[in-house]
Specification:
This protein has a single domain, classed as Orthogonal Bundle (MetI-like fold), CATH 1.10.3720. Helix content is 70%, strand content 0%. α8 runs antiparallel to α11 and α12 runs antiparallel to α13. The longest helix has 37 residues.
Length: 280
């Protein structure tokens, strides 16, 4: 049964995909759908509560922060950074880690030992602590953060690619390709690599959510994206001093992070189940 047929039959997968698509569209068209610019400040309207709370204003559905900025507009614009970081970091880390994992697993020998030991050493450090240290060294900046998170995450993809290629290279079709004289690079690229993509697609999907949380964590700590760029982690940091008298400043970006990461994780989990031949 084809993938898309199984996917459409899975209500959780379809619901997650629709929710994620809506969030992506909101991020793309943020300038047109938000009632205010994210940095539109007006002190006279500071700390207005959400519309459902006493004292709320219909113009500010989720309230305003201590600078009078509209929380809803800020969150919608901030979703751009989360999606850019999530996608760009998995592309960098996925490409780097997959290539290293394929080389180590297929050719073996000293390359396997060197690459996998490098992965083991990096995996021995807590991921957020390692990313925090690297981000503190290179300084704040969107593309610097993307590079730091991407390079820090390569061992995850390397391990998956390594295990998948080890399984593939012992199969009969690989041995047949060797017997007819095909070169190792051609066998790797044309035959082995395409059959290892399914687990990598799944882990890549799941890693997007992890990178979004990592970006929010570093921005919250002040070493991620600079304050001139709207981020959910930055808004969480702004709201921590107002938890008692303006709870909405930190609560709504936290909910946004939770919803986006849950949608991505549900999509990744259901994709893994659909692609797993043991289940289907």
């Amino acid at each position: 049964m084809k993938f898309y047929t199984l996917f459409l039959r899975n209500k959780l997968a379809v619901s997650s995909a629709i929710l994620l698509l809506l969030m992506v569209l909101c991020a793309i068209f943020a300038d047109w759908i938000t009632p205010f610019a994210w940095n539109d400040q007006e002190v006279s309207r500071r700390l207005i509560p959400p519309i459902f709370q006493r004292g709320g204003d219909v113009r500010f559905l989720l309230g305003t922060d201590f600078l009078g900025r509209d929380i809803l507009s800020y969150i919608i614009h901030g979703s751009r950074v989360s999606l850019i970081v999530g996608l760009a970091t998995v592309i960098i880390g996925g490409i780097l880690g997959s290539i290293l994992g394929w080389i180590a697993g297929f050719f073996g020998g000293w390359a396997d030992r060197l690459i996998m030991r490098m992965a083991d050493i990096q995996l021995s450090f807590p991921y957020v602590l390692l990313a925090l240290a690297l981000a503190a060294v290179v300084g704040p900046g969107l593309w610097k953060l993307i590079l730091v998170l991407g390079v820090s995450s390569w061992p995850v993809y390397g391990r998956v690619a390594h295990g998948a290629i080890l399984s593939e290279k012992e199969k009969d079709y690989i041995q047949s390709a060797r017997s007819i004289g095909l070169s190792s690079p051609r066998i790797l690229l044309s035959h082995a690599v395409p059959n290892t993509l399914s687990p990598l697609i799944v882990v890549t999907t799941l890693q997007v959510g992890r990178m979004i949380i990592a970006e929010a964590t570093l921005s919250f700590l002040g070493v991620g994206v600079p304050s001139s760029v709207p981020t959910w982690g930055g808004l969480l940091n702004d709201g921590r001093s107002y938890l008692y008298n303006a709870w909405w400043i930190a609560t709504f970006p936290g909910i946004a992070i939770m919803v986006m990461v849950m949608a991505i994780n549900f999509l990744g989990d259901t994709t893994r189940d659909i692609l797993d031949p043991k289940i289907n």
